[in-house]
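Researcher: Here's my situation. A collaborator sent me these components and asked whether they could plausibly form a single complex. I don't have experimental data yet, so a predicted model of the whole assembly would be a useful starting point for our discussion.
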Amino acid sequence: MTEPLLQLRHLSKFFVVERSLLGRTISVLKAVDDLSFDIMPGETFGLVGESGCGKTTVGKMLVNLYRPTAGRILYQGTDLTGLPARERRRYCRDIQLIFQDPYASLNPRMTVGDIVAEPIRVNRLLPRDKVDDRVGYLFNAVGLSANYRNRFPHEFSGGQRQRVGIARALAMEPKLIVCDEPVSALDVSVQAQVLNLLAELSVQFGLTYLFIAHGLNVVKHVSDRVGVMYLGRLVEVAPKRDLYRNPLHPYTKALLSAIPVTNPAQRRTRILLEGDVSSPIDPAPGCRFAGRCYAKTGCAGCACDTQLPELVEVSPGHFVACYLHPAVG
Amino acid sequence: MSKWDSPVAPGTPPEPASEGLVADETMALGELLPDGSIPEFDETLHEKPENQWLEMWRSLKANRAALVSLIFIAFLALLAVIGPYITPYNPIETNMANALKPPSAQHWFGTDQLGMDIFSRVIAGTRVSLTVGLLAVSIALTVGIILGAVAGYAGGWVDTVIMRVMDMMLSVPSILLAITLMAALGKGIDKAVVAIGLVSIPEYARIVRGSILSIKENDYVAAAHVVGLSDSRIILRHVLPNALSVIIVRATLGISSAVLDTAALGFLGLGVQPPQAEWGDMLGRARGFIFQAPHTLLFPGMAITATVLAFNLLGDGLRDALDPKARIK
């Protein structure tokens, strides 16, 4: 059996919202709370959840933009969280990030050629005279003409800018790319192009993706396995087919029912969640989803309101954290 | 790693996109042609890559007041360089027999209480005012940018310490602070430069810090972290260039207040020492003759007013020109 490329173990990120005068923590925002999953080399792991559930925070911890509060990030067996800053930065090369907003992620004062060349030059990945060729190669690899390299980001469309962002990530020759909602800011017609490009690149360069998205429809096309997050917790992890055919967590079912159906004749039962997402600041004990759960009543004696359910493997590769499932408890 | 090796042989330019293919005008940017190739960039359909300075200049030209100010400032700069060689009289030559003469054909601006030619003295004073203005602003700008950039980028206690010191300096009226400094340093134009420069540091530190605080939240700064750039490089390459427009505008407006401060110190007899000509000093020495010979104050006063006004109008024009939203099309 192959070793996982990345293993997250009890990863947490808390933000202090309020401190007392003496510096004691008064309230805490639990953005990511005790997250554990593995990513195998070559696979695309989809991470899904609504806005504010902490999925972007996970991505930012992987690329060293945030320092985890607790837990470990094991990359090829090495714990990245314990490394001193200088050592940690070395792993930047292997784990790269593609940003959500292609308009904010490119420096407006630099040409796109410089944007892609900078990581190569600064990290001395190639001899000086080879940098230009590599930039041209990367431009072609992401479907941009190398002639564009002297242009500024504002001269490009959203899809083209996202391609530049992808080329910048590729410049580091990464093994794992965190795609933070890479297409949600793009037109639907361009989304498919960028998704196809990402799929091609993963074959060409042997890339592994952590694909972050807020809905299950995009993830359905690209992922091998999917993790569903709700308020900082992973509620269900499963291979894609399993998850779409046999969703176990009530939240996953609700998300699935929200995917628009293209066939107007097909009927679907839409699960409408009531109430608002409860605040991740000082969350109440019990399942994070309990406040909006429509299935909770079917389990009168369950600990939904008093105890956090843990992820349990209920069938091979299919994990769920819900007391409604007989295997959890 | 062979998969990252460029298929392009070193030295040969990346192959140009196939010729003759022209993007259809109706096609969205970023789309591929039906055969899967990349559309060639058609120069006739798109604007030439615009140099941002060129764009700024175009918009500045459209602003009549700013353009006139710029021409006037250029004229002043010329006077500052060649002025002392073209004055009709020696600006420091006294002629008591000819004192307080109103403007005439011999003395265009009249003569002052010591019989010196005011026209010659106004011309000679240009050099002092402009030099002091520029030097003082350079001092303030250099120190202000460094302090503001460090405070804004580092945050935390570094920010607190730097900005509280700036607040302390701002809590004393700047001219009073300058006078106090002059009292400590002694009289003289070089000390005036230092004093005016030091007291205007907080303005620049504040404005630089403010724009850096907003710029560093941009995704492209995060992207720079992700590709492993050092903090100093991020500040110099990604943050400061984007704050440049704000800094340029502030510095232009700053010159006008430095010219005004120079005149104020001169008026109080703290700047240049007689008999050297300086506008503020001329005002200060002639103020006893305001009813008897108003022209002795009128002309140096007008020189100060015109210079300050020109720098203010240019600064306003630059602000509009550098702000894409306010740009006149």
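Model: Some features of this prediction you could bring to your collaborator: Chain A touches chain B through 59 residues (CB under 8 Å). The mean pLDDT of chain A is 88.
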